Amino acid sequence: MTRCKFHCQSVRKFATREGLEEKFVYEAEFSAVYDGSEENKEFFKWTPSGSLKIGVYKEDVFQPGKDYYVDLTEVVK
Description:
mainly beta
């Protein structure tokens, strides 16, 4: 497993359709952390760059200005 730490830059709400039903998607954009705390500086040593964009149907999952851990684990088939 590799643990990364990302900073939420923005969350954008937009409408989409699933059949006849209109739904809202909340698209969050993240970038790798690089400063702000000693922990962030340590993460920067191992993951100096990165970006992530994720869409979810539930509102208020991610908030701009907050940091989040992302754990990457290989899928074994």
